[in-house]
Every structure is written in C-alpha cells, then in structure tokens.
Amino acid sequence: MRFEKPVPLTTIASLIGAEIVGTSSGMVRGINEIHKVEEGDLVFVDHPKYYATCINSAATYIIINTPTEFPPGKSLLIVDEPFEAYQKIVQHFRPFEPVVKAISDSATVGATSVIMHGAVIGNHVTIGEHCVIHPNVVIMDHCVLGDHVIIQAGTVIGSDAFYYNKKTNREIYFKKMLSGGRVVIEDYVEIGANCTIDRGVSSDTILGAGTKLDNLVHIGHDTVTGKNCLFAAQVGVAGAVTMEDEVIMWGQVGVNKTITIGKGAEVFGQSGVVSSIEGGKRYWGTPAEDYTKKRKEVAWIKRIPELWEKVMGMSDR
C-alpha cells in the first residue's frame, strides 16, 4: 500500500508507539507484505522463524517485537504486537469510508463509459473511457479500471482479502488482516457475471490488458495476471499467484497460493495446480501434470482390471 506521499519514520513510530533502532531520519513510502516489499517500505514480522527473511528483504523499515541485528541503512521499529501495529497503520492511512450513494462523489468515471442501474461505484474509484459496467456490479474503494473494460452483472471488484492472522493464545484464533490494497484492471479486460476479484492485502491485485474471465471466476488477493489470459467458468485462484501472459485455464481449475504459472500454459478443466508450472505446455489432473503423460497414466489405469485378470489367470495354472 503506497502512502499518498512519503511519511517521516518518526511519524509512523509515534502512531504505533514504537522505539526506533537505527536511523530515525528516513521517509516511509508505504507498507507491504514480505513478497511485495520495495525499498522505502515498511514490513512487519512477529515470529522468529521469519525474522531473517524480513530483515534481509527489500524493505527499509521493519516492525518487529524484539531487537535483533540488521543490515546498514535499515531501521527497526520495536513494538510488543507488530500485527496490531500493521492494523493501526492501515486504519490510519486507508480508513473505512461508507459508500452512501450509487456513484461516490470521489469516484472518477470517463465521459464515454456507461454505468448501468444498480451498480455501485465506491470511494476513490477510477474508471477509464469506453467502459461498460452492467447492473448490480460493485466496485469497491480505490479500485482502478483502464479503458474498454466490460464487467457483467453481479460481479464484485475489490472485496476484502481472505487473509487472517492466526494466534492460538487468543479466544478467537483468526483475526482479520485489514486490506489496504487495490484491484487494478488494465485495458480491454472483460469480466463475466458473478465473479469476485479480491483486493490486495497491502499491494495490488492486477488483471493484465486483454484478459478475459468467464462467469463465476474468483481471483484471490495480490494475484497478478499477465496480458491476454483466458479463464473459463468457475476457475478459482488463491492469493499471491503470478500468472504470466497468455495463460489459459478451463472450467473449474483450482490454483494454489503463491505459485507461478508460466507464459502460455494451458490447464484443462477440473485440474488442481498445486505448485508452479512451466509455460508453453498443456496440463491436466490433480496435481496438474503434463497432459500427454497424464493421458497415458489414465489409459494404463483403465487397463488395471484386464491386467489383474491376466495375472490371476496365470496364477491359477
């Protein structure tokens, strides 16, 4: 999540009640998760297992619950509860704003775009030119649409991420991690009816230019698709997935979190993609494997009864 303008580190420390270890003169550009951080960003960590990863990431400022060694040029912000500090920062810089009318006064809609009856356009949304937003579409706060985007009826863009902080020492184990990210939809994207595209937790969920989604497709938080991808009905993609250009997924494909789908990969219906796969190949099954190899396996499985009869017949001799 990028701040509107850089914020003094001392201001952040005061907001969350943190002790600064290291230089205190820095300017913070935003707050992000570990897999999305850039120089000038904040990141939080509250478990020793991930200390080294966070401290040695691109992040310049680390919210942490204990002093530890860190590289030159970085600073630690020491607090008792780093997760709660993250929540406070998101609440402060991207506070909840109720949507009180169909098209928010703070939204920007291109003069040549059409918003049909029953659609809701949230706060600080930007919609480009020549877009068509069909009835009962909901576009939540801070989302960005390019030009020539079509969204069919009933779709929700920018719903909160399905993302929870788990602590078993609380009465309620799973605590919602506030979503400060956006959905960014590039030019010439078409989205079918009753799709759900979650906003990023602290970064952006992105649909690349020319990508097409059928009905009932779900795209999880912080997932980034390349250009000219094609997803058939009931595809479900988990969070923080990277899909390169020209990926095709047929009906009811499920994709695991935090993996990469290579350019031009084609995944056949009802497959489960559980780990990263190379581009330029066809895949099928669960776990998804090379299509030709999987077809041969199925052919052999079908022959098991025949082979069994032969084996049993030979053993009777």
UniProtKB/TrEMBL annotation:
Highest taxon of source: Bacteria
Q: What is this protein called?
A: UDP-3-O-[3-hydroxymyristoyl] glucosamine N-acyltransferase
Q: Which UniProt keywords apply?
A: Acyltransferase, Lipid A biosynthesis, Lipid biosynthesis, Lipid metabolism, Repeat, Transferase
GO BP terms: namely: lipid A biosynthetic process
Species of the source = Flavisolibacter ginsengisoli DSM 18119
Domain UDP-3-O-[3-hydroxymyristoyl] glucosamine N-acyltransferase non-repeat region, first and last residues per copy: 28-92
A Pfam family annotated for this chain is Hexapep
Alphabetical GO CC annotations of the entry are: membrane
* Annotated signal peptide: none
Named from the GO MF annotations, one term is: N-acyltransferase activity
